[in-house]
Amino acid sequence: MLRPRLIPCLLVHNGGLVKTVHFGDPKYVGDPINAVRIFNEKEVDELTVLDIDATVKGAEPNYQLISHLASECRMPLCYGGGVRTVAQIERIISLGVEKVAISAAAVENPSLIADAAARVGSQSVVVVIDVKKAGMLRRQEVLTHNGSRQTGLQPVDFVKRVTELGAGEIVINSVDRDGEMKGYDLDLIEQIRHAVHLPLTVLGGAGSLDDIKKLIGRYGIIGAAAGSLFVFKGKYRAVLINYPNREEKEALLPT
Which of 61, 93, 118, 159 sees the fewest Cβ atoms within 10 Å? Predict the structure, then answer.
C-alpha cells in the first residue's frame, strides 16, 4: 500500500549542514554524516541531501561526500547539487544513491531529463523546481541558482514540460516559505497537483506536524519534505535532529 512520505531535506554548504531562510543566511547546524546516522536510528522514510554550493560555483558534485552519505544511509537517498550530465548522474547512482535531483540543468538543458531517464530509469530522475513570487504582478516563477536567477518560466508550464520529458518525480520548493516554518504554500501545491500525476514532493514552510497532517489530509499520497522542522526544536530553534515516531506518523494519516 502506498503511503505519504515524510522526508528530511538536508542542505550542505561549505561541507557542513546548514539551514536557510528564503535561500539566504545559512545557519550551521551540524555535520551531515552525523545527521544521517541519527535519521537512520529514527527510521525515516527517505532522505534528501542538496549541495547548495555546487551549481552556483560551477563545481562538480562532491563524489566523496556522496559516497560517504550513501554508505551510511539506511533509507532511500536523493542527492542533488552540481548535476549537469548523464555521466554524473550514472556515477552518483553507482555510489548507491537511489535518486538524483536536478534543478538548474533541467531549465538550461531539458533534454538531460529524457537522456537520464533512458539511462538510469525515470524513477531515479527527480526535478527540483524552486518557485518564488516575482515581478510587479508577484506571479509565481521558477528560479535557479539558489533563487538568484529568474527564468521567466511559470511553474505549471514547466512541470508539464518536465513530465513529458520523463521525470520520475517533482519536488516543488517554495522560496518564499523557506525557513519560515509557517506552513506549506497550499495554493501553489493545488496548481501543481492538478497539472501533474507524477509522485510529488513539497518543500518549504513546514513548521509543525500539523502542517504535514493538513497537507496529507488534503492530498493523500504525497511527499512531505521539511528542513527546519527536522533539525530545530522549540520556539528558540534549538538544533535538535528529530523525526516523528511510528505513532506520531500514524496520527498524521486521514482517519
Answer: 118
